[in-house]
Amino acid sequence: MRRQDLEAMDFEELWLLHEELTKILAEKITIEKRELEKRLAQLNQPDQFGEAESGAAKAGTGQPPRRKYPKVVPKYFNPLHPTETWSGRGKQPRWLVAALQSGHTLEEFRIRENGESSDRNAGGQGH
C-alpha cells in the first residue's frame, strides 16, 4: 500500500487494518518461535554415534575432536586440610605457595603411594 492510500482511509478502516496486521504478525511470530525451539532442541540433544566428528567437519574447523585424557591423580596435599590437593600441573595453589615461601620443600607435601618409603631419594643411592 502506498502512503497516500493510507492517508485517504478513515479511522475505522485504519483501525481494522491495524487489528488484522497485529493478528497476522502474532501468528508469524508464534510460528517462528516454534521453529527456533525445534532447532534449539535438536542442538541440545546429546551426540550419538559419531555426530561429534561430523559436527566438527560441519563447523569447518577441519580438525578431529580432542582425544579424552585420563584423569590426573593428585600428587601433593595440604596437611592442614587433606582434602586440598594439587596434581603438580598448572599454577600452584595458594596453600602450597605460602608453605614453600615459609621454608618447606615440595617433597614434604607429596602423597606417598603404598610401596614408597619416605626416604627413597635420601643419599642419592636408590638403585
From TrEMBL:
Residues 108-119 have a biased composition (Basic and acidic residues). Residues 45-74, 108-127 are annotated as: Disordered. GO terms for molecular function: DNA binding. InterPro entries: H-NS_C_dom, H-NS_C_dom_sf. Pfam families: Histone_HNS. It comes from the Bacteria. Residues 66-111 form the DNA-binding protein H-NS-like C-terminal domain. This is H-NS histone family protein. It comes from Bradyrhizobium hipponense.
